[in-house]
UniProtKB/TrEMBL annotation:
InterPro entries: EF-hand-dom_pair (IPR011992), EF_Hand_1_Ca_BS (IPR018247), EF_hand_dom (IPR002048). Its main location: endoplasmic reticulum. This is Reticulocalbin-3. Gene3D superfamilies: EF-hand. Belongs to the CREC family. GO terms for molecular function: calcium ion binding. Keywords: Calcium, Chaperone, Endoplasmic reticulum, Glycoprotein, Golgi apparatus, Membrane, Metal-binding, Repeat, Sarcoplasmic reticulum, Secreted, Signal. It is found in: Endoplasmic reticulum lumen; Endoplasmic reticulum membrane; Golgi apparatus; Melanosome. Pfam families: EF-hand_5, EF-hand_7.
Amino acid sequence: IVSKIDEDKDGFVTVEELKDWIKFAQKRWIYEDVERQWKGHDLNEDGLISWEEYKNATYGYILDDPDPDDGFNYKQMMVRDERRFKMADKDGDLTATKEEFTAFLHPEEYDYMKDIVVQETMEDIDKNGDGFIDLEEYIGDMNSRDGDADEPEWVKTEREQFVEFRDKNRDGKMDKEETKDWILPSDYDHAEAEARHLVYESDQNK
């Protein structure tokens, strides 16, 4: 695999080469995931996936009983999926092309889907339903304390991160824009960060 990453064939893997490989591998995984799911949802094989097709393929077996006794609220999940599907569906015809279906399955990869990623994240973490993420909700999403167990050091660090960096206006909670800066920072390249970390850990002679 090193020979594939080493684009200039000089016998060394640079941060830039590793970053390019990570991005390539990620795109390949997304492509394979979309292809796999496409086959299971394009029921009439017309090269498009309508919301009805997706709904029937995904939720058909529980539509008659949308709240079965297994801990999942399928009705709520379906409403959420429909909202995301409509956001991905650029022309509003309730039918997804392969590109639109990719945006639906992997919204974090598309600029026009970022608002829905933020909205879903806030809904997941905002337990009191006030439309914000406060410190305890932020910590609770990452760490579920067991009784009076001592708080891990990394949790204390995250508390400091919340106060110093996440909550930019210092009102004790994160709004939509602050949440967006947290989960989708515009100045952060995940592939580059991972590449730098891997090269640093692997470079024995630095």
